[in-house]
Amino acid sequence: MSLNVERKRADNYVSLTWELVKRDLRLKYRRSILGYLWSLLNPLLMMTVMVFVFSYMFRFDIENYALYLICGQTMFNFFNEATNKAMYAIIDNGMLIKKIYVPKYIFPISRVISCFVTTSFSLLAIVIVMLVTRVRIHLSILVFWVPLLYLLVFSCGVGMILSALSVKFRDVTHLYGVLTMAWMYATPIFYPIEAVPESVAAIIRLNPLYVFINLFRDLVLYGNVPALSAWAKGLGMAAAMFAVGAFVFSRLQDDFIYYI
Amino acid sequence: MSGIINVDDVSMRFIIEREKTDTIKEYFLKMVQRKLKFSEFYALKGVSFSIEKGEAVALIGANGSGKSTMLKIIAGVMQPTRGSVAVRGTIAPLIELGAGFDNDLTARENIYLNGALLGHNRQEMERNYQKIVDFSELHEFIDVPVRSYSSGMVARLGFSIATQVKADILVVDEILSVGDYSFQQKCHRRMEEMLSAGTTLLFVSHDADQVKKLCKRAIWLDHGLIVQDGPAEAVCDAYLQSMEQKG
Questions:
Q1: Is A15 on the interface with B (CB under 8 A)?
Q2: Inside any domain, residue A1
Q3: What residues make up the domain containing A224?
Q4: Which end of chain A, N or C, is more open, meaning fewer C-beta atoms within 10 Å of its C-beta?
Q5: Is B171's Cβ below 8 Å from some Cβ in A?
């Protein structure tokens, strides 16, 4: 690696990341009349459908079901959308990567960040549900953003792995759809963890997405401040996934050029 | 080694899979059956040269001589199999103008995006924005998505962005057939201006006339080896002569 090419100042790459995020945001709702309002409406509409399905057709005994649901759904949807977008980041920018030297990790990371920005609009949907269902608002809600940050870091890690692997093996893109579906059912989004047998629940508790969602629900829905060990577990999982992602990506990135 | 670009004994090997394996299944099947056949191909074989700051150097050679590979290695896009390249300064690549454009964005948005891709931050781009628009002469179309641009307009915008923001090294890959005649003249003048202001130029072309006009020195590559490295006039003439003999 010729170090001097890389010598360009780091803040220029921050600039680039922002430009890429802005591009994604500009293009996301182009040609739609309601535009960013969709980031608010979509989760509300989806939640309404699911509340209907799971209150009348398959019943779970959960207090404040609407809020329970939309918390899990918002976080899972962010993860799903961000990693799927990140997966194509290198493939889509192939033309560019062939011509100009840019640190390539910027592409998956910027896509995850742009999904994070739209998700923050969706948080308004959670506020609306809280107001409509008149749930008690606890002080713990002030740190709701910590589990979201964990999830952001975790998603960056997964995004880096997917974007690097999918360059050489496009199968990954097909396989990942199945994986996310399985992952969704393995995460207590619309059912309570008590609904599954203890042997399965033990496995689910190792599911990082459940760990993040659980932290979030504790803060927003139940007003519990989680134990320090729960915070540490979440942070550890996020950091570990990010490290693995960065490692895989850095090992594979020099070969991208032969496959794009 | 004091040059702004130092290329030291660079070799580039490509491994060509005889049949393309694109899926994991195919890959493993072939691995098990030991059918993964590879052949090697050296695009560059121990190439060394050094370019001083402010020099204008052309890389010439037939198709497949290794020019583009050399350029990609200098741009940092590809890693050489052996040897090393050291570049002291920022590179503005003019390799296929407009490669970094997003068709759905307007020209204005693309200027900032492209500038960021070339490693310039927002403030730098804001300072240079007006100059870029003026040079491209695309004032009326600046808020139109690039998808509705003609290829000439895209090339104008690309050239303007790459040349209006200060860079130490300008890398140009056969592009001077850009736009109409008057814009081509303008591009030439702009490149000469940059040269006299101390920008280093690396120019890749088949066109001996353009090379002689812009460059003092030429490096002739053939099948990954340097045939000649010297004054542009002499090297171009020798190159043309050998082409005629072959033809």
A1: yes
A2: no
A3: 8-258
A4: N
A5: no
Interface test with A, best of B17, B22, B117, B120 (most A CBs within 10 A): B117
Residue-level length of chain B: 247
Cβ A115 vs Cβ A81: under 8 Å: yes
Angle, CA of A54, A189 and A136, to the nearest 5°: 85
Task: Give a yes or no: residue A3 inside a domain.
Answer: no
pLDDT at B33 over 70: no
Q: How far apart are CA B236 and CA B243, in angstroms?
A: 10
Each residue of B50-82: pLDDT tens digit?
Answer: 999 999 999 998 888 888 899 889 988 899 999
User: Is A12's CB within 8 Å of B93's CB?
Assistant: no
How far is the C-alpha of A195 from the C-alpha of A173, rounded, in Å?
32
Encoded tokens for B125: 């781009």
Residue of B nearest to A16 (CA): B116
Q: What is the total count of domains within chain A?
A: 1
How many beta carbons lie within 10 A of that of residue A91, not counting itself?
A: 17
Interface check for A10 against chain B (CB to CB < 8 A): the answer is no
pLDDT tens string A186-216: 999 999 998 899 999 999 999 999 999 999 9
Mutate to test the interface with A, among B26, B31, B77, B169 (most CBs of A within 10 A): B77
Per-residue pLDDT of A116-132, as tens digits, reads 999 998 899 999 999 99
Q: With a threshold of 0.85, tell me whether the complex ipTM lies above it.
A: no
Give contacts of A 139-178 with B, CB under 8 A: 169-171
Rg (CA), chain B: 20
Is residue A2 situated within a structural domain? Answer: no
